[in-house]
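Researcher: I need the complex structure. Ligand is adenosine-5'-triphosphate. Inputs:
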Amino acid sequence: MENPFKYGAIVRGPYFADRTEELAELVGEMNNLTRVFLISPRRFGKTCLLFNLMDKLRDLGFATAYLDLNAYPDVRSLAAALTHLTSKALESNTDKLTKIFSRLQWLRPKISVGHDGSLTATVDVAAEVKDALPALLEGMQHAERLARKRGKKLVVVIDEFSDLPKYDGQTLEKALRAELQQHDHIGYILSGSEQSVMLSMIRDSKRAFYKLGRIMALGPIDRRVYADFIYNWLQKGAYEVERQELEKIFELGRDVPHNIQRLCHTMWELARETREITPSLIEELPVVIAQQDSPHFELLWQAASQQQKILLIALSKEPDAKPFSGEFQLTYGIGPSSSIKASLDSLTRKGILFKDLGGSYQFSDTFMPYWISYLKQAEK
Ligand SMILES: Nc1ncnc2c1ncn2[C@@H]1O[C@H](COP(=O)(O)OP(=O)(O)OP(=O)(O)O)[C@@H](O)[C@H]1O
Ligand SMILES: [Mg+2]
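Model: Output:
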């Protein structure tokens, strides 16, 4: 039997755990074609939730389009993708799509031939157009018109929405907001991970998205429901386990779904032969994972300065340590605070640490402290 605990990609169908309430809530919102900001820390499962939501919405007769802002480096490519994906969601016939695209002012149809000779119609911003913003707005207006004409509810999901400022500008944010507000045949879900960026974008009254829609904060998956999910799969695989032992996995993975999946995936593999899951096997999981990811951690480590390494060691031993306190600096023989601040900032920029909403520094990868404490220290 294949390992049912998937990680690193989009998890769907029977491999997707819970989120029943969140799905129902989002279906409700989209029934009313509202605008929702979905936010959470990284790897909490926003993208997975959105894909499962879109599967459900399509079953209910909605048209859906998904865009990940990471994939579009400039407004030009975004305008083309948005127009293409929304139109394709509402019209599958290539001829009709080409006709639709040819009526646009700022965008031009593009036909490509697949390996099997099949034709696909996409769209590009016209070559002579210098500023792509009008093309983006035209694409959005076009989507709204087409949805109205087809009598269909369209849901547009924009993932990694916190990337929007990279397009450089308040003009774009304002224009987008003004456009979004006029749509009543399209529901929007704008999803983003960098909480502070998203929140400042939405809440800052000087920024364009202020009060545009409801904020839905995605929390961890309920432990009891997630434990049922894990337990049921283990039973299907004929694994022996005490149900309450699974509780430990949530602590080790700090309730982050990505971590929980990784831990369970590893647990399944480690016990493949014996089919027995013991408390000591569970305890061992983070170290096994840290070992698997060792080449990655080694690279990060090599790029760190001596003071940064001392800080990382300290934080791996004491996650709640206060690096700016005199006691900390005395214990670890580093300082002053200004240089510690510079080190922490640099580690944050490198993505090794992140600053949580409470202002303390955390490891971005939950398993890195295990690598530092058990593997790096063991080398000495
Ligand atoms: N409901 C779920 N059931 C099973 N696994 C899940 C679930 N939600 C998330 N995961 C696991 O977590 C991983 C990360 O999820 P996902 O990419 O959706 O998070 P995200 O919040 O979009 O992260 P990012 O902020 O980095 O974009 C998935 O690859 C999957 O392994
Ligand atoms: Mg995501």
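Model: Summary of the prediction. Strands lie at 35-39, 63-68, 107-113, 119-125, 154-159, 186-192, 214-217, 353-355, 361-363.
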